[in-house]
Amino acid sequence: MASRAEQRAETRRALLLEGRRQFARDGYHGVVLEEIARATGVTKGAAYHHFGSKAGLFRAVVAEAQQEVAGRVAGAAEGHDDPWEQLLAGCRAFLAAGSDPEIQRITLVDGPTVLGWNEWRAMDEASSARHLSEALEALIATGAIVPQPVEPLTRLLSGAMNEAAVWLARPSATATATAAATAPDDASGETRLDATMAALRLLLDGLRPR
Amino acid sequence: MASRAEQRAETRRALLLEGRRQFARDGYHGVVLEEIARATGVTKGAAYHHFGSKAGLFRAVVAEAQQEVAGRVAGAAEGHDDPWEQLLAGCRAFLAAGSDPEIQRITLVDGPTVLGWNEWRAMDEASSARHLSEALEALIATGAIVPQPVEPLTRLLSGAMNEAAVWLARPSATATATAAATAPDDASGETRLDATMAALRLLLDGLRPR
DNA sequence: GATTTCACATACCTTGGGTATGTCAATGAC
DNA sequence: GTCATTGACATACCCAAGGTATGTGAAATC
User: Fold this and answer.
1) How close A49 gets to chain B, by Cα (Å)?
2) Which residues form the HTH tetR-type domain (chains A, B) (predicted)?
3) pLDDT at B175 over 90
């Protein structure tokens, strides 16, 4: 029938897929590894054989999700020629991707604590955050942004977008009647993304030379 | 000897203190509740009597730490008269407070996942994030910042500072040789705070009307 | 075709959060 | 003062779930 390598790859992929589903739905600590295995049609032993631990499977799921986000960001940026527009398009794509509940819970909420902040940051840097720092460096090189160390700036912007993405995907209106002044009826979904992008655009404008 | 209310308060405070120490040092999932109790001089039963669950104790610790941060932020802001300077001083105080490893691990890293992002955000809003949104509203009211909905902006800035604070307290130079171009020798501690504040200042400048 | 490898399955151990119940001193009623 | 009650814990136990050690049978190698 199937060769051993094929079977192995298939099982691995199936575990990864089911793991992603369950981790996204119930959160890392709400998931029992044996359930993932059962839903996949194998036993816990298979999961340990492939990934070594529950955290190991989760790490692989995180990596996959981050790659996907990075792909969307890069794809969005490609559609523009002007570096500044590329940055904005990439940011928007990141916010949209991060708003996807499946992506979000895994990469933004559980990722840092389960894997540890340092490891998570390294993975983030290897995928989507890299695009951000590269874009910033390019803009500094062309003089579109005032010269400055990129690392603090990358951290600030990356954090800003991470948090904003989580906020964007929140179930509905938190609306603690704090600032409902501007828009009486709740702005859901796209509108909030636009509002966030508008604010981000302003912040980024501050980086341009006067 | 001690009245029952006094004894109760004393035990509660002792558990809170020891809990904070251990949660900060080993992280939420690295801590066993029985150890906290043992170090406090009581048993696990006492902890459950006071806080209901391990997460309950952690929640109380988080609340306390957040109050402390809010206090430092408000204190720093009070030292200035100009609202814009108040904002900057508050931001700097937040970054400094968040860089404290004890504060950080509890409020910024473990908080969101253990308590859930929604509950964590509500607690954050009730303490330090509230100062931020109030300051932004005040600046909009006086015309120092262009009119806009404050919530997206608050989320962006809050996230930016959270992430930056975690980055600032990182053990040492991560230095993946990515952007070591600008500063050859590593800038540790205060210098990184200054660099972060400089970048944040630029970003905030973008909010002022042209 | 015998041997080895390896992708899993099975059985078991152990940690640790949670709970049910007991106990004894402080409190209040009389 | 005595007696009943409350309450702040201690003790003993349950059990879910991550991890491990070992077994097994089919594919790969020779």
Assistant:
1) 24
2) 9-69
3) no
